[in-house]
């Protein structure tokens, strides 16, 4: 199994919305992928509740049966729609992928 974790720090304002509004939109868009893309075993999106200088705004936790399944997810057109929006609103991205 492969675990995929991504954290984003968002711009204060982007795409005509606040950071909090964009975080909620990201959450909705990403959570919808669970039923749209085959091979996603688990997908959770959390919004930060404690702000601080090292805090991220949004966190994605997902699990896939294999690296190939995760790569198919990343290339899927529905995921690419999320990527386009996230690139417009994110100031920073960090990710880790690991087998367990």
List the SSEs and their pairings.
Layout: E1 2-10, E2 13-14, E3 17-18, H1 19-36, E4 42-47, E5 58-64, H2 67-75, H3 77-89, E6 90-99
Antiparallel strand pairs: 1-5, 1-6, 2-3, 4-5
Helix pairs in contact: 1-3
Strand order of the largest sheet: 4-5-1-6
Q: How far is the N terminus from the C terminus?
A: 6 Å
The general outline is globular
CATH top-level class: Alpha Beta
Rg from C-alpha positions? 13 Å
Q: Helical percent range?
A: 40-55%
Poorly predicted runs? none
Assembly type: single chain
Strand percentage: 35-45%
Number of domains: 1
Q: What's the average pLDDT?
A: 98
Q: What structural category arises from helix and sheet content?
A: alpha+beta
Folded structure, characterized:
The chain has 100 residues and is α+β, with helices and mostly antiparallel strands. It has one domain (2-48, 55-99): Alpha-Beta Plaits (2-Layer Sandwich), CATH 3.30.70. Helices cover 40% and strands 36% of the residues. It is built from three helices and six strands; from the N terminus they run E-E-E-H-E-E-H-H-E. The chain has helices at residues 19-36, 67-75, 77-89, and strands at 2-10, 13-14, 17-18, 42-47, 58-64, 90-99. The radius of gyration is 13 Å and the shape is globular.
Tags for this model:
alpha+beta, 100 residues
Short description:
By secondary structure, the chain is α+β, with helices and mostly antiparallel strands.
